[in-house]
Design brief:
The chain is an alpha/beta fold. About 40% of the residues lie in helices and about 15% in strands. It has a single domain, classed as 3-Layer(aba) Sandwich (Rossmann fold), CATH 3.40.50. Helix 4 crosses helix 5 and helix 7 crosses helix 10. Bound molecules: S-adenosylmethionine.
Length: about 250
């Protein structure tokens, strides 16, 4: 194993320059969503996430759809690949908000893919539903205008996240990553302390707590992209504050 691979495998979620406290605010513990032995909890978390995402004004699917469509505004009929689509809320919004976009809706989990395949979304002639691993994308180079991975990258350790950067920028002109923010460590600690008591009451809060500990900082994302391929550049679209981390990666061809 070369030293670059060793460095990325041991890199803290807060990035290579993470503070002492930030390095302690992370975990290898799995979310219910990552486990195969708690199907009912997994389904509960995903349904709650999807319901929250579809809310009219504050739902994350609508916000992500606007981010995606802004990135492909100059393409008349964009071909979009959604990775880690869960129950397909973002893809549904994209199809509703753009009259000619074609969307490939994918996830690694066969149960979620089956759920989407049995929903109204699959009946849309501009939608294709498939199982797909974001770290090994089954598509030719440059096939899509944009690939999006929303609220999902933190599920993967750094080396697998690097595969997402390599593969996403191989098959698409742009890779859009939207994920939980990683607040400054003292604030992060305070927020975690507030949420901790709720993790026993709600499976969604349980997963949210772990997600927050596993969220990557912008410097971690840059290091991961650099490790994936030095030809990949990353720009951040995030605004200051509590909003999600929004990164757009492209590869110099
Ligand atoms: C927190 S959910 C987010 C789902 C959806 N994007 C949303 O915003 O509602 C994370 C999703 O990432 C998927 N996932 C995890 N690892 C993946 C991988 N290697 N490739 C594709 N999807 C993956 C999970 O199956 C899950 O559906």
């Amino acid at each position: 194993m070369d030293s670059g691979t060793r460095d990325i495998m041991s890199m803290p979620r807060g990035g290579p320059d993470a503070s002492w406290l930030d390095r302690r605010l992370q975990t290898d513990r799995l979310e219910y969503l990552d486990r195969d032995d708690v199907d009912h909890l997994k389904r509960k978390v995903m349904s709650a996430l999807d319901r929250a995402g579809r809310r009219r004004w504050i739902g994350i699917h609508g916000k992500c759809a606007r981010m995606v469509l802004r990135e492909v505004a100059d393409v008349p009929s964009p071909k979009i690949l959604e990775l880690g689509a869960g129950l397909g809320g973002l893809s549904s919004k994209l199809l509703a908000d753009h009259p000619t976009a074609q969307v490939t809706v994918t996830d690694i989990d066969p149960t979620f893919v089956a759920g989407v395949a049995g929903s109204d979304l699959a009946g849309n002639p501009r939608a294709t539903v498939r199982a797909m691993d974001a770290t090994a994308i089954d598509a030719p180079d440059g096939h899509y205008d944009l690939a999006v991975f929303a609220l999902s990258l933190h599920h993967l350790p750094p080396q697998a996240a690097a595969r997402v950067f390599a593969e996403g920028t191989r098959v698409a002109n742009k890779l859009l990553i939207v994920d939980l923010p990683r607040p400054p460590a003292p604030l992060h600690l305070l927020l975690l302390a507030v949420v901790l008591p709720l993790t026993r009451l709600s499976p969604l809060q349980h997963d949210g707590f772990i997600s927050s500990l596993r969220a990557y900082s912008p410097s971690a994302l840059r290091a991961i992209a650099q490790h994936a391929d030095p030809a990949i550049t990353v720009e951040f679209r995030s605004r200051r504050g509590f909003g999600p981390t929004v990164a757009v990666a492209r590869r110099d061809r």
